[in-house]
Amino acid sequence: MTDLQTSLMAIGGTIVVGVIGYNKWQEYKARKTVERAFSSDQDDVLMKSPTPAGEAIERHEPTLADDDGLKPSAAVPVSTQAFADEPLASGSAAVAAPPVAAPVVQKDLPVDDLIDCVIPITPEGPLRGEKILPTLQTLRHVGGKPVHFIGQRDDGMWEPIAHGGIYYALSAGVQLANRGGPLNEIEFSELVTRLRRIADDLDAEPDMPDMIHVMPGARGLHQFVTEYDAQLSVNVQSNGAPWVINTLLAALERQGFDLRPDGRLVMPDGDGGVLFSLSTNVTLAAESTSRLTLLLDVPRVAQARDGFGAMISCARMLASRLDGTVVDDGNQPLSNAALEEIAGQVRDFYGHMEAADIPAGSVRAQRLFS
């Protein structure tokens, strides 16, 4: 081997070692960037528990964008009770202490006359909750639509069927629509068949509405769901090196995000729900990412929680700490003016939902937008 060959090999080895060392140094710097970004002990308003409903909120209230098709064209008339002249439950059951008037279904019950097809069931006599629950639990869904039951006590009040309860009338409710579509003819036919079988087992008589009256209400409610199915997202794009995933996830969890089994990160609303979610836009096996996406499911978050304001505050905080920029889906920076405009549209959106008696974040909205 000549001196020239020896020298070339030595130079090549030096270059390889240098490249490896440089890569390790870049990885070290990226990890330290994330660690420093989240190492501050200073309180962050965004990462505290969300403001409870009813308390004053300093952030701007939410809104939705025209160019994304999110703003409702008008208040959509929802005709979910095409069979509204049908009584919700019979008041003439031949029992020892029957209710005296057609009951009003309370809003906090699992059977809701605005979003469910409500079917009265009249038993021959009082029914004990523990006796009928096993039978009723055989019917939980038809297709993708949930089915619930409630019972009327001797004082005329309605409640979910429970052990120890005695019921003089029952009502079944099948949800008319959700994000998966409206209740269709096949699902309704299945409901009728299975509900008649259950009623026979309970010595009861169901008062089935005509299918031709139910279908228009289901389609009308699904039209509402389609019109108001709005999701808003913002992104944080790295200005430099990608962020190391393991370090980033650990830091986000310390700041209040919950890591779900499916890999989603969600910010809890402090009351068992989700305020907004965060995606790293890569698989769990990836080592780094250059982009984070925050997503607000608008109809599922109550206006009082200011989900849009909280999401934007979080995006700005992440951008500041991680050396990133808040951008839209087209990678264009989002100005304060653009965000304020969107916030105003969200407020209008909430107003439309409130006017339809399906306020965002309510039980009704949670069920419909599922």
Polypeptide structure, described:
The chain is α+β, with helices and mostly antiparallel strands and 370 residues long. Among the domains are: 116-225, Alpha-Beta Plaits, CATH 3.30.70; 230-368, ZipA, C-terminal FtsZ-binding domain (Cell Division Protein Zipa, Chain: A). Helix content is 35%, strand content 20%. It has eight helices and 18 strands. The strands form five sheets. Strands 1, 3, 4, 5, 7 and 10 form a six-stranded antiparallel beta sheet that branches. β14 and β15 (274-279) form a beta hairpin. The longest helix has 35 residues, at 3-37. It is elongated and about 100 Å long. The model is unreliable at 41-105 (pLDDT under 50).
In short:
The protein has 370 residues and is of the alpha+beta class.
What are the main properties of this structure?
alpha+beta; 18 strands; Alpha-Beta Plaits; Cell Division Protein Zipa, Chain: A; single chain; elongated; 8 helices; 20% strand; 370 residues
CATH H-level homologous superfamily name of the domain at 230-368:
ZipA, C-terminal FtsZ-binding domain
Average pLDDT confidence is 81
Q: What name does CATH use for the topology of the domain at 230-368?
A: Cell Division Protein Zipa, Chain: A
Overall, the morphology is: elongated
User: What percentage of the residues does DSSP assign to strands (E)?
Assistant: 15-25%
Radius of gyration, CA atoms, in whole angstroms: 28 Å
Span between termini:
74 Å
CATH architecture of the domain at 230-368: 2-Layer Sandwich
Q: What's the helical proportion of residues? A: 25-40%
SSE order: HEEHEEEEEEEHEHEEHEEEEEHEHH
Number of strands: 18
The level-1 CATH class of the domain at 230-368: Alpha Beta
Report on the biggest sheet.
Answer: 6 strands, antiparallel
- Are there runs of 5+ residues with pLDDT below 50, and where? 41-105
Structural class: alpha+beta
- Counted by DSSP, the helix tally is 8
